[in-house]
Write a structure and sequence with these properties.
The structure is a single chain. The protein is of the alpha+beta class and 500 residues long. The protein has helices at residues 28-40, 84-89, 93-98, 106-119, 125-133, 146-150, 156-180, 194-207, 271-277, 303-312, 331-340, 344-348, 361-380, 386-394, 403-433, 472-494, and strands spanning 49-54, 58-63, 72-76, 209-212, 218-221, 230-231, 239-241, 248-251, 261-264, 289-295, 318-324, 459-460, 468-469. The chain has a 4-stranded mixed beta sheet, with no helix packed on it. Strand 7 (239-241) and strand 8 (248-251) form a beta hairpin. Helix 1 (28-40) packs across helix 5 (125-133), helix 10 (303-312) packs antiparallel against helix 11 (331-340) and helix 14 runs antiparallel to helix 15 (403-433). The radius of gyration is 26 Å and the shape is globular.
Length: 500
């Protein structure tokens, strides 16, 4: 009997963030102090920008003039960026960091640097003005109460947040043993508590920017003032690192007029990652996904032969594959599982590229039945089913904008993806069992999305063009369940994402 693939839940629209990190308004004296330091240090563009509070996103950056898309809005010079290099170059902090072997991670180095500056009673005036302007608390999932987190039980966010909380405790204990406790004159433990560490790590998660350098190395940095810009997916990705000068610049991701909020784009991220790292979600996020890990132990039968086939197919014995709203059952999932379930007779005649299609009927049925069973099991593990969550959100059981409300949106997104994946696997299984698989036809049988009828004629949903119905009655009955996914898929299609 072959080991089953392991399913793990992992990290990873033209809308702005609908839940902002918990930020208190920045006092004008604090923002003035930071801006004066930035200008003295060579920052460019601050005279045409200001920090302001906005109704939806909370604190952000407002434009005081017109900007055309692509125009440079802001430049923060290299010398005042928070980087690992600058931490090691600090005359007080650097020697302590260099004494730690193996070195601290980039994340822990930056978190330690931020806490070190915050703890100083004198000196570091410029950097301290930035730290003072940072949020005093965050709404990322590691700060959720148990009851708030339970709303998304069964999701990747739930599993990873539990793991992160344990990991943070272990990492903090390691820092105390390796550096904080060794240099208590630099790191007074009353200012380097585990709560301080969680805050600093969340600062790095939510405000850090990552860039790949020309030499293929990478850099993570925090840029004062630039880190006050909020996310919107309606703007192009517009923050740029100049490797030659070391400066960080922000370009206009769209046209702005005076009074507009200026945004950056964090990238096409699902809600589970947005909430874990940044503390907000997007309602009906078209980038929602569910990551699965497919894994086979090296002691499994014929593992070496299968490993060669996985590699030839661009895979490996352990693969992480994202299921998305537009591609809920990627071909690589099928390729992997077809190879995993090959028996000795199959392997003896197997061609390198044969896994692009059906190998044989029994293999295909086994793979698809496994997927249907697995998706059903994953969906059953959600603490609150999709329909109930929708009713709770409509009735404001979870206060809009709160932690439980955000957790509910993560659960909605992942359940929608898994339901689409299950439906796709069921349709392919029906096609394989009907005998169409013997002809190598991978397309699923047309099936009414409401009653599962498989004989036509059918009506195509005119909006998303992703489902069919046997009658107008079935379309009306199914509308409540289908409307959100329909809106997301049709919006994604307008933004250039193809439904597969």
């Amino acid at each position: 009997m072959y080991p089953s693939a392991t399913f793990l839940r992992i990290s990873e629209l033209c809308l702005v963030a609908v839940l902002a990190p918990h930020t208190s308004p920045c006092p004008s004296s604090v923002s003035d102090s930071m801006e004066n330091w930035l200008k003295e240090s060579g920052a460019v563009g601050l005279d045409d920008l200001e920090l302001a509070n906005f109704q939806v996103t909370g604190r952000g950056v407002r434009s005081l003039q017109y900007y055309k898309e692509g125009e440079r809005v802001l430049t923060i010079p290299c010398g005042i960026l928070w980087t690992v290099e600058h931490a090691y170059a600090d005359p007080l902090l650097g020697p302590a960091l260099r004494s730690v072997q193996p070195p601290l991670t980039v994340e822990d180095t930056l978190a330690t640097y931020i806490l070190f500056v915050r703890s100083r009673k004198s000196g570091y005036n410029g950097l301290r003005s930035h730290v003072t302007a940072l949020p005093t608390s965050y709404s990322s999932s590691i700060f959720f109460t148990e009851n708030e987190l339970e709303v998304c039980a069964g999701t990747s966010l739930y599993t990873i947040t539990k793991q992160l909380k344990r990991q943070i405790e272990e990492d903090y204990a390691s820092l105390v043993a390796r550096i904080f406790g060794q240099y208590q004159d630099l790191f007074p433990l009353d200012k380097f508590t585990i709560e301080d560490y969680k805050w600093a790590v969340s600062t790095v998660w939510s405000r850090g920017m990552d860039f790949v350098l020309p030499d293929e190395n990478s850099i993570r940095l925090l840029a004062p003032f630039a880190d006050m810009l909020n996310h919107s997916s309606e703007v192009k990705q517009c923050h740029v690192y100049d490797a030659s000068s070391g400066n960080l610049s922000v370009l206009a991701g769209k046209d702005y007029k005076a009074g507009d909020q200026v945004f950056i784009n964090y990238g096409p991220l699902p809600n589970n990652r947005l909430l874990r790292l940044y503390g907000f979600v997007l309602s009906s996020n078209p980038n929602d996904s569910y990551d699965i890990v497919l894994s086979t132990h090296p002691t499994a039968p014929f593992w070496e032969q299968k490993q060669k086939l996985w590699i030839s197919a661009g895979l490996d014995s352990t693969c992480t594959i994202s299921l998305t709203l537009t591609d809920p059952l990627p071909k690589n999932v099928l390729r992997y599982l077809r190879i995993q379930r090959l028996d000795e007779s199959d392997l003896s005649v197997m061609q390198v590229d044969a896994t692009d299609g059906i190998i044989n009927e029994s293999n295909e049925v086994e793979v698809l039945q496994f997927l249907v069973d697995s998706f059903c099991g994953l969906l059953e593990n959600f603490g609150t089913q999709l329909e109930m969550l929708e009713e709770q959100l409509a009735a404001s059981v979870h206060p809009p904008g709160g932690n439980a409300w955000a957790a509910a949106h993560v659960s909605l997104g992942e359940q929608r993806v898994l339901r689409l994946a299950r439906k796709r696997a069921e349709d392919l299984l029906a096609a394989a069992e009907s005998g169409r698989g013997r002809r190598g036809d991978l397309s699923p049988l047309a099936r009414c999305a409401n009653c599962d009828k498989v004989s036509g004629p059918f009506m195509l949903c005119g909006r998303c063009k992703a489902v069919v119905y046997c009658t107008r009655t079935c379309q009306v009955v199914h509308y409540k369940e289908h409307k959100v996914v329909c809106r997301v898929i049709s919006t994604a299609s307008k933004n250039g994402l193809e439904m597969k």
